[in-house]
Amino acid sequence: MTSQDSLQDLRSQIDVINMQLLELLSARARVVTEIGKVLTELGSEHYDPSREAQMLTALELANKGPFSNETIKALFREIFRASLALEESQAKAKIRVQRKSADERTIITLPDGVTKIGDGSFQIISGPCAVESYEQMDETAAALNARGVKILRGMAYKPRTSPYEFQGMGEEGLQIARQVANKYNMFITSEIMDKSQIDMMLDYVDIFWVGARNMQNSFLLRALGKINKPVILKRGLAATLEEFMYAAEYIVSSGNPNVILIERGIRTYEKSTRNTLDIGGVAVLKLESHLPVVVDISHSAGRRDIAMPLGRVAKASGADGLMVEVHPNPAVAMSDAKQQLYIPQFNELMDELDKYPIP
Amino acid sequence: MTSQDSLQDLRSQIDVINMQLLELLSARARVVTEIGKVLTELGSEHYDPSREAQMLTALELANKGPFSNETIKALFREIFRASLALEESQAKAKIRVQRKSADERTIITLPDGVTKIGDGSFQIISGPCAVESYEQMDETAAALNARGVKILRGMAYKPRTSPYEFQGMGEEGLQIARQVANKYNMFITSEIMDKSQIDMMLDYVDIFWVGARNMQNSFLLRALGKINKPVILKRGLAATLEEFMYAAEYIVSSGNPNVILIERGIRTYEKSTRNTLDIGGVAVLKLESHLPVVVDISHSAGRRDIAMPLGRVAKASGADGLMVEVHPNPAVAMSDAKQQLYIPQFNELMDELDKYPIP
Amino acid sequence: MTSQDSLQDLRSQIDVINMQLLELLSARARVVTEIGKVLTELGSEHYDPSREAQMLTALELANKGPFSNETIKALFREIFRASLALEESQAKAKIRVQRKSADERTIITLPDGVTKIGDGSFQIISGPCAVESYEQMDETAAALNARGVKILRGMAYKPRTSPYEFQGMGEEGLQIARQVANKYNMFITSEIMDKSQIDMMLDYVDIFWVGARNMQNSFLLRALGKINKPVILKRGLAATLEEFMYAAEYIVSSGNPNVILIERGIRTYEKSTRNTLDIGGVAVLKLESHLPVVVDISHSAGRRDIAMPLGRVAKASGADGLMVEVHPNPAVAMSDAKQQLYIPQFNELMDELDKYPIP
Amino acid sequence: MTSQDSLQDLRSQIDVINMQLLELLSARARVVTEIGKVLTELGSEHYDPSREAQMLTALELANKGPFSNETIKALFREIFRASLALEESQAKAKIRVQRKSADERTIITLPDGVTKIGDGSFQIISGPCAVESYEQMDETAAALNARGVKILRGMAYKPRTSPYEFQGMGEEGLQIARQVANKYNMFITSEIMDKSQIDMMLDYVDIFWVGARNMQNSFLLRALGKINKPVILKRGLAATLEEFMYAAEYIVSSGNPNVILIERGIRTYEKSTRNTLDIGGVAVLKLESHLPVVVDISHSAGRRDIAMPLGRVAKASGADGLMVEVHPNPAVAMSDAKQQLYIPQFNELMDELDKYPIP
User: Fold this and answer.
1) What value does the mean pLDDT take over residues D282-305?
2) Percent over 90 (pLDDT), chain B
3) What distance in Å separates the CA atoms of residue D302 and residue C297, rounded to the nearest whole number?
4) So what's the pLDDT on residue C24?
5) pLDDT surpasses 90 at D70
6) N or C: which end of chain D has fewer CB within 10 A?
């Protein structure tokens, strides 16, 4: 037999073994699935490291080569992991915020019955960092309204790093925001910081806003799952996308399906921008979840001089909208002075965005 | 004139200008203090952003270089801020958690009047990740007590990434923890997740515990500032040391001076450990704050096989104690299975630490 | 005098003092600039901490309040910093890669005299991760050429994490790349890993490529500054934008102005993408530098399923082009199997990009 | 049948399948070994991606679940990889720098035959950031020698962010370093930046030093694998431990077993220290590799005021030594002015370390 022939012959043997392995792996997976069901009945954890250790020891004892024990253990660990992943993917199928089909999408309709987020439109959410006075809100809202913006930031409770910084106007700020929103037929979104505020805020707010610091405040998230107003959920400053989706799951699984995700930049070593806008993360979220995703181009940048390219980027990314801070006079703003746009800058941004189609 | 001489000459000019600047800054501060008094008489806010904006504009117009307008505005903003701080009460102008002298330290005394944190001793805080049963707590506490540990983890509310993971036993868990602690004359520390839990938990808990996810939950922090039990505050997973100290300031400035800081690892790109223990940060905190600092060697590592070196490191760092998770049977633990120590491992760790002096 | 009047009066005093401060600060800055020149003559470091310490001590001794010594020292440290920054901005003005005016741009012309990068066009750089065979390169280049792509990846030296991974075909790979490029009238860009390779590679390569691992290899950068072919410089995986620009400065200051910057994602904690595309960094680079900037949508993502949104994002960001890996059969590629596009996917991406204008 | 019983039963089924899988995998490996022999006879490459692609396609077609095609392909790719590794020489299949048993250690002996690294001692590597003059080196070396330090930093080539910063004295610096080292019977370690420097530096240097920026410069690493002097390899500023070990493997697999790993802090968002010392990483390296590990307490901190606690931490971590920068007058140093210790501080550090046992 020539080398070429014997190669052919050996490769056929491999092909046969491959099929036998496939069959065994599948059989094994079926049994593991059964075990998963029993463990659920028993209320036990599915991942059992001591059982794994025992199986690996048995394999090691039985192994006569040519693979080393290390290799055998590595291969079986992969098999164990695949089995566990199989169970998890079944578990994950129960995660409500995950997209199950390419065209699944959550569409959120605001009280006018016309304004929608997640329906393929590109919504602008805007307003100053914080409510500072009636005049400031009125001037901003007039400018936004002139460009068709429907969702107005009416932030009255500001989470701040230092207890000595401006903490927002409180309920008085909400009253101002509501009054101004009513004047221009706009909707108010405002940050909630503690579940004890829900009842009071229900009177003023159209969309609840959960800040980055509260992304994993499960008591707040569950409480917002019980109301029937939409919730904007910001990604925590070092949250993974998986954690972000699970945070949304706390709200959705508590009964409120209307959650909007906001990517606002993550904390990295790079300091030329306030945070690092994770635009790839936006693309991944749009793949993996059916929830609307909005890009915050103000907190991610922390500087207004790149608002224009980031606005275009947000629209091009496939996101459902963008959030940008606008203030009549950013230089005297009580917070975020460097990142809020002047009104003329906002108008330029809107002109620019009009040139680009929604993907 | 040689270069060396002209350098001397120019530096003398600088010295003169410095003194003139000092005089002017002091004169300015005196006028601002007067203005403050008038504003108080008038019942007006002392901080007036539009007045600041107007002064900055005037300076900008007058500026002929060589400093850019940006630099001039930045310098004057510093001067404005200094003046404002001067007006505010001396106490408020200072950050309370900051060490003012090398020997300033906050010493926290537990209810037995004997156990102290921050007094130069090295305290061990230990127990399982979560209360799972009376037997589990009893077995753990017995082992810890045998080694002189006084502070027992009695975690009954577990903040979890997914809403479908084990969330803790709730108040039943607190009852178990209290019962076991009483049996062994130990103290309970337990995590609080929402300010609504304070009253209930006061009955069970000796030291409140604020988790990493709640480090910037200012409503919770302020509420804990109103009670008279110590609070352990964990560093957020991507919090800077400055943010960490400000978070403690929320508690302390609300009236509760007894705060213990825990470094528990920060989130980085490196995944061979669950988080990256910032031991340099511990050294910096000990320099900058008078609060006790404790090192969490479990969550920072996420694996028990390096508990021994990390325990030694914690003690060598100058920290006031360490936190380590111990479980009678980690393999079946409902959370953190990979990082909790077996009881014999815990004993080895204690033996090892005994060999090293407190710095 | 009423309170209102005396407020007016005091504020006028402040206005006068502000102007005097401005004058003094400017005078001081002029003297500091003189000192800087002398220090340069003397060959001394400009930043002199002991001189600063001595000035602060003098001020402390002279200070009679009302500002505390701490405040005075803080204010003067700001003034020192501003003066140093002034000198540095003059130093920085000597950084060649920095944009000095809004319309300054480096335009790189390839050997056909027609293909340009940085002229306002949007160039596509593409090809497989590595040269594997003539057939593979030919099939890829044919597809790229059909879409008007002019710059072909012809990677023959692959920097790999492990010494046991495929390290590229070496010079044989360069020969294949050159042959294929000639067939389709395309240009070859290929990675150089050591300065000893320059002479050999000059025969094959139109654009030298410096990988992320070599971004700060100053010996290589300086050597590339001596040749007259363009250089593509990738951002290091944890390089700041400032470091990135300084790396380009090593090449430009050595004599070669034709440098193209590539943003390829930075390393962060987030693992759903291989790296985190720093699209805000692209916007900042376009503001701060006149060099062309290209976005690598393959290494930043590490997955081909988000190539479409990232391609749109790259174009919308204002970058001068994008880099995308394409392979006839990514499943069998010897590296980067998960991120290289299939040829039909590449065609879809080109179709999509055609719908969006260059900003 | 109770749940408990059926669990038992299902697990027995798994045990049987595991053994069948083991048998098949072993049979497969034997056939692959045969194929390898034939391919060698035929002079063909053993790694054949198209054959792999064809097997994967066949498996995909045959797969009827429950594993997804993706999972099946992933598992078989692991099996292919294991088989390939098996074919390769036993030595090559193993990563040389990995510890195979708990007591395996690389001990490096310096030319005096007495000074050792990795033998259980705790070595101090010290000296100024850069050679600046004979006097500076002499004064430093005298102080170090008085405390028994044997390894002197003699850095003559400084990799700098900016091309306009001090780049080191070059060969003149090496001459000074050598002269001073000879005077005090010390050993010189000095940074190499390009493989072209090896021959020249061999005359001056006892231990080659590869900086963080060159950790993945494979041309340099391989070249250092051909010499018979030890190499200190610094971790890249965002390198994973796995990448770090592979970088060492480039040297070791090229023939030079004498590599010392240095942890020098990783780049994170936290800026109160220059880098974040990954002390947990040191513990992991000591577990996973037999190479000596040294802790750089200067570059990790970037500030000298925490050198004392970090020195204790380094010793407590189980590392084989520490590296600390010392300068007769750090205030005037040409680089790293804030982190180099004054000589009296160095002496205090040595006194402190003497109090602590080596673990």
Assistant:
1) 96
2) 67
3) 35
4) 87
5) no
6) N
For the cut 50, the answer to whether the pLDDT of residue C48 exceeds it is: yes
One domain, residues C47 and C188:
no
Residue A181 lies in a domain: yes
Beta-carbon contacts below 8 Å between A and C: 125
| B310 to D280: CB separation less than 8 angstroms, yes or no | yes
Interface predicted TM-score of the whole assembly (ipTM), two decimals: 0.81
D104 vs C44, higher pLDDT: D104
pLDDT above 50: residue A289: yes
**Alpha carbon of D243: minimum distance to chain C alpha carbons (Å):** 6
Contact B193 A219 (CB under 8 A): yes
Tell me which residue in B18, B28, B267 faces C269 most closely, judged by beta carbons: B267
Selecting from C278, C283, C316 the residue whose C-beta is nearest the C-beta of A270 gives C278
Q: Which residue has the higher pLDDT, D198 or D15?
A: D198
Tokens for C71, please give them.
């405040």
Task: Report the relative pairing of strands C207-210 and A259-263 from DSSP bridges.
Answer: unpaired
Count: domains in chain C: 2
CB contact under 8 A, C271 and B271: yes
CATH (domain of B8): 1.20.59.10
Question: Is position D128 within any domain?
Answer: yes
Residue C317 included in any domain: yes
Are residues B25 and B161 part of one domain? no
C-alpha triplet B284, B290, B293: angle, nearest 5°: 60
pLDDT (average), residues A330-335: 78
Which one of D93, D118, D140 terminates a domain?
A: D93
Last residue of a domain, one of A59, A92, A125: A92
pLDDT per position as a tens digit, D91-126: 344 689 998 888 899 999 999 999 999 999 999 999
**Residue of A330, A193, A324 lying closest to A262 (CA atoms):** A324
B186 to chain A nearest CA, in Å? 29
| Chain A with chain D: Cβ pairs closer than 8 A | 151
Alpha carbon dihedral A156, A159, A161, A162, in 10-degree steps, equals 50
User: Which are the contacts of D312, defined by CB distance < 8 A and separation ≥ 6?
Assistant: B316, B317, B318, B359, D352, D353, D356
Chain C residues with CB-CB distance to D220 below 8 A: 194
pLDDT surpassing 60 at residue C91 = no
Q: Mean pLDDT in chain B?
A: 91
Radius of gyration of chain A (CA): 27
Neighbours of chain D (3+ CB pairs under 8 A): A, B, C
Quick count: other Cβ atoms within 10 Å of Cβ B71? Answer: 22
Q: Do B269 and D309 touch (CB under 8 A)?
A: no
Residue D98 lies in a domain: no
Contact C29 B55 (CB under 8 A): no
**pLDDT value at residue B93:** 44
Domain that holds residue A64: 3-92
Per CB-CB distance under 8 Å, the chain B contacts of D359 are: 309, 312, 352
C20 closest CB neighbour out of B24, B41, B74: B24
Query: Bigger pLDDT: D18 or A212?
Result: A212
Which residues in chain C have Cβ-Cβ distances shorter than 8 Å to D252? Answer: none
Tell me the shortest Cα–Cα distance from B104 to chain C, in angstroms: 18
Is the model's pLDDT at B41 over the cut of 80? Answer: no
What are the phi and psi torsion angles at A321 (to 5°)?
Answer: 170, 180
A211-215, C246-250, D18-22: lowest mean pLDDT where? D18-22
Q: D67 falls in which pLDDT band (50, 70, 90)? A: confident
